[in-house]
Amino acid sequence: MMTIQERFDGLGRRLSLVIKHLAISQSEFARQLGASPRFVSDVVRGVKRPGGEFLLGIKQTFGISADWLLAGDGAMFGGAGINLDLFRAIRLQVALARAGVVDANECALRLLVLIRDGHLKDVAEPDVLAFVEQLRPCDDDIELVMQLYNGHIGTPDPVIQNRNILVAAVAYFEAHKPIDKVAALAMASGANIRTIAGVNG
């Protein structure tokens, strides 16, 4: 069993994980907390120990569990349980991304553009509305749903959270589409494969 000192010594590493998870710089993290970048850097490196005001600021600003930050107990965002509304929304977003990218469904592609541009409330076309009603999550995508949920649960702004989740889901399916391997190799190398293949030893 770890001693209190050993658990507290991991605070800098956990704070570094928080900053990485939030996808912001140490300077931006410090700015949002009203702390100096030097102090945050010192805490991350284990040179300084933060006080209660700093820890409370992290909890209130970013929703990070003080128990987890101080001692590694529980989860980064505490034990509030699963936000079922968010989980269900992510399942639908993944199903939409799959329909648009994998199935090339025209209604799904139109919806993706509307969501990207922030105009989802403007949807009035009967075919798109009918598509939404028929949209069903695929159980094969549950691992992706869990990854997106865990990766974005701490995003404080719901609009940014939803857009980031949808962008990540689309990128996942784009990355898993079958590719023309010869063209991909040619693009990666910057060479013309036909020219190289035509050269005799």
UniProtKB/TrEMBL annotation:
Alphabetical keyword list: Plasmid
Protein name (record): HTH cro/C1-type domain-containing protein
Protein source organism: Aromatoleum aromaticum (strain DSM 19018 / LMG 30748 / EbN1) (Azoarcus sp. (strain EbN1))
Pfam families cross-referenced by the UniProt entry: HTH_3 (PF01381)
One GO MF term: DNA binding
PROSITE patterns xrefs: HTH_CROC1
InterPro entries per UniProt: Cro/C1-type_HTH (IPR001387), Lambda_DNA-bd_dom_sf (IPR010982)
Domain HTH cro/C1-type: 20-69
